[in-house]
Amino acid sequence: MATVTPQFVSVEPALDLAEDSCTLQINIMYEVIPSIVCSMCLSFGLIYCFFGYRCLKMVLFFSGFLFGSAAVLLLYHKEPGLDSHLSLETKAGIGLGVGVLCGLITMLVSAIGYILSGLQLGSFICLAILVLVGQFWTVSSEFVPVGSISALGIITAVFTLLWHKPFMVLYTSVYGAVTVMLCVDYIIGTFVLPDQVYGIFQHGLTHPLCWFDWVVIGICPLLSLIGGLVQWKWTARELLQKEGKLLHMQRGRQPHRKRRPPPLKRYAGDVLAPSYIQSVQERRLGTGSSCSSISTITHTLIDFDFETGSMVPLTTSPVFTV
């Protein structure tokens, strides 16, 4: 198989060329296992780029898996003593275990998956900007890239959590494009882009890129744009419409509560006991005694708020004589 290795050829000043030029040399030398891994990553990158939103659960799983594995690798890098006491198989097992656990969490809890996807999206965009800026200006402090990556990652994480549909389409297209770019960088034999990213955190010590490196870098924005348009127009459109219809049906099935009229207010003067009405009628007819009138008044006060009483309003005020 053929690989391409870059070389910086210094041209003598007598040739009136002050700058170095990059040349390519093709070597027939490919390793089997890295080539298989590269082909698998290339396939996953294309799937992510054009069909990422249709495989949302898989995307959320790999988002957590990448975060957990990267955290374990960073811990090994920061703790040399821990790295020296563990074998390669043990470190690989721990990394895979933590990655799978984080992937399951992000797949089952969608909110955490959206937050981690937004953090990775902001990190990819910020790293690309820092690599381009590092070719023209030197970043003296290592806190500048760390702070900028953290700030942009938090912003995109919040936006992804609020509007997960468009930002997840953007995340899958960018993630797939970055994966394809790294695979192409390995295929042509250079694989200098990871060194450029590592040099950003080493006080901005980056090497100048060759013309074919710029071509490889150009794959990322071009493929991101194409993948995002394809997903938004075709592959993810049907799924987005189904989610919208399902949400509309769920809202339509909710029972609408009818507002009940306010309860009728009952006052003490509006409710009369039957015994009181009977006494009024007896007064009109001239029957009944004074003692019965007094007892009637007492009985009226007792039955005044009885719920089974009559709702007949009081129209006349009787006059009692003792």
TrEMBL record:
Q: Where is the TM7S3/TM198-like domain?
A: 38-232
Highest rank taxon of the organism: Eukaryota
TM segment ranges: 32-51, 58-76, 96-116, 121-137, 143-162, 169-191, 211-232
GO CC, any one term? plasma membrane
Q: Which UniProt keywords apply?
A: Membrane, Transmembrane, Transmembrane helix
Q: Where is it predominantly found?
A: membrane
Give the UniProt subcellular location, in the record's own words.
Membrane
Topology in the lipid bilayer: Multi-pass membrane protein
Q: Name one Pfam family in it.
A: TM7S3_TM198
Family from the record: Belongs to the TMEM198 family.
Protein's name according to its UniProt entry: Transmembrane protein 198
